[in-house]
Amino acid sequence: MADAIAIYPGSFDPITLGHLDIIERGSQLFTKVIVAVLCNPSKKPLFSIEERIAQIRTCTQQLDRVEVDNFSGLSVDYAKQKKAKILLRGLRVLSDFEKELQMAHTNKTLRQDIETVFLTTSTEYSFLSSSVVKEIAQFGGTIDHLVPPNVARELYRCYNKADATTRRPPK
Question: Which residues participate in catalysis according to the annotation?
């Protein structure tokens, strides 16, 4: 798409391999993908905005068309500020579609020129969410196959469940 900027908004607390799948594939479709970390005052994130931005930048540094930023408020307002006309969203399961379709229609009522583009998550990540990753890490499970290595180390440190350098759960 010629000069198409896509905003991929989310909390990314933490970023997972499923998120990275959408980012990588989106970067092949659009001129630029801005991964926009949402400051949501109603949520209590595990990682600060700065930590999440650093995690995402580390994971996407090899992707020339990806930028990482943060915002608060409506994603359509942020898109307008960035001169983007596309909101990129990932779909895992049918229940995601219902919620995301409602959000896309709502966004359309707020800004007529915005389009929401859905990418289905690759099959191997269809079950994956940040909440699932945090719960597994909290109870000492292995998360190395669910998140990038830098994120796994930070999660293991947060929960004091493993030596962060070995990336193994406790015995």
Answer: 19, 43, 92, 130
Other Cβ atoms less than 10 A from the Cβ of 128: the count is: 20
pLDDT along the chain (171 residues), means of 10: 87 97 97 95 91 97 97 96 97 89 96 96 93 94 96 92 47 40
The strand ranges marked E within 50-113 are 66-71, 86-91
Burial class from Cβ neighbours inside 10 Å (0-12, 13-18, 19+) for residue 108 reads: middle
Residues of the chain with CATH 3.40.50.620: 5-122
Residue 94 has, within 13 A of its CA and on its CB side, a CA count of: 0
User: Domain 5-122: which CATH class?
Assistant: alpha beta
Beta strand spans in 61-161 (E): 66-71, 86-91, 115-120
pTM above 0.85, yes or no: yes
Residue indicated by tokens 């597994």: 136
